[in-house]
Amino acid sequence: MKIAVVGTGYVGLSNAVVLAQHHEVVALDINQAKVDQLNNRVSPIVDPEMQDYLSNRELSLRATTDPAEAYEGAEWVVIATPTDYDTESNFFDTSSVEAVLADVLARAPEATVVIKSTVPVGYTERLREEHPETTILFSPEFLREGRALYDNLHPSRIIVGDTSEQARRFAEMLLEGAQDREVPVLLTGPTEAEAIKLFANTYLALRVAYFNELDTYAVTRGLNTQQIIEGVGLDPRIGDHYNNPSFGYGGYCLPKDTRQLLANYGDVPQTLITAVVDANTTRMDFVASDILARKPRRVGIYRLIMKAGSDNFRASSIQGVMSRLQSRGVEIVIYEPTLQQATFQGCRVINDVEEFDAATDVIVANRLDASTAVFGDKLYTRDLYSRD
């Protein structure tokens, strides 16, 4: 069976590799460099399992920039294109999904379309009404950047937003490629599946915000954050997971998904979702103020990435802190080895750790790693457990 997967980011590539273990998969992307990397069995994203599978496993996988090559003979098309949040419309920009769907309808009208991109609640139902001749499914993705393939090989759940035989078949295909056999499978309505995705990510953002506000309180009152977190986590209903303070939730998913869910509420009564979104801004304001209290002359930003083990720094919370420091006239230098450029957002980039250390009097790190120990007392972080 031939499957076309459109988009080779975290979602698209991890699904392509899982499905390519048992089916012919053609990955379609507009980026020729990424296509070339995949055809040379090099992962274009930082993900250890991904590179292992590309290098060492038998996969029926090839990549192309040619839509005709991808869609010809395809029985399934998985759409995993970006849906960035549009602050003017207060909704995801779904234009890439619609462009792919139009191309599929023209080239492979018999194919079953599965949307893996995150979309607003009610979006798939609207597409179905506009294209009743086509089978369109929505299947939310639950993965971590840097562990995308692992999370698809060991899925916490498989959800498909439909109860048809096609939906059941797609769930079976995902389960077929997973390493775990006892995986909960849930077939729902398409709108319910869209809501599951946004509510799940908003809960994760809420948990991040909760422990960050706990930390803000402890720092302000001169208390031991770690002791409070450990005591709170001893309640089995709360647990000791996902509780490490940070500069705020960031990355590609949580900021945009929380704002999209808030927009979807419209005139539905709520206060909590607004509070989750606002809490992230408040946390970055506090962190910036706490750094400024040290009266720094030149601040070093250690890594722009959203989390350890990732190469993505889109919407990372440390950039929010950095912009606040810049607005107060603080000189900033950046250590980010993934950047091969002299400056970033008006700040000098230094890719030698010793030079970076010597050039700063305060170094700010959202997450610690093996290199941060050398910075000593000049290091500012709220990372207590050296994990995400």
TrEMBL record:
Catalytic activity: UDP-alpha-D-glucose + 2 NAD(+) + H2O = UDP-alpha-D-glucuronate + 2 NADH + 3 H(+)
Enzyme nomenclature, EC number: 1.1.1.22
Gene3D superfamilies registered for this protein in UniProt: N-(1-d-carboxylethyl)-l-norvaline Dehydrogenase, domain 2 (1.10.1040.10), NAD(P)-binding Rossmann-like Domain (3.40.50.720)
Pathway of action: Nucleotide-sugar biosynthesis; UDP-alpha-D-glucuronate biosynthesis; UDP-alpha-D-glucuronate from UDP-alpha-D-glucose: step 1/1
Keyword line: NAD, Oxidoreductase
Classification via SUPFAM superfamilies: 6-phosphogluconate dehydrogenase C-terminal domain-like, NAD(P)-binding Rossmann-fold domains, UDP-glucose/GDP-mannose dehydrogenase C-terminal domain
Family annotation (SMART domains): UDPG_MGDP_dh_C
Enzyme class, broadest EC rank: oxidoreductase
Residues annotated as domain UDP-glucose/GDP-mannose dehydrogenase C-terminal: 300-387
UniProt similarity note: Belongs to the UDP-glucose/GDP-mannose dehydrogenase family.
Record NCBIfam families: NDP-sugDHase
Name of the protein: UDP-glucose 6-dehydrogenase
Annotated source species: Ornithinimicrobium faecis
Upper taxonomic lineage: Bacteria, Bacillati, Actinomycetota, Actinomycetes, Micrococcales
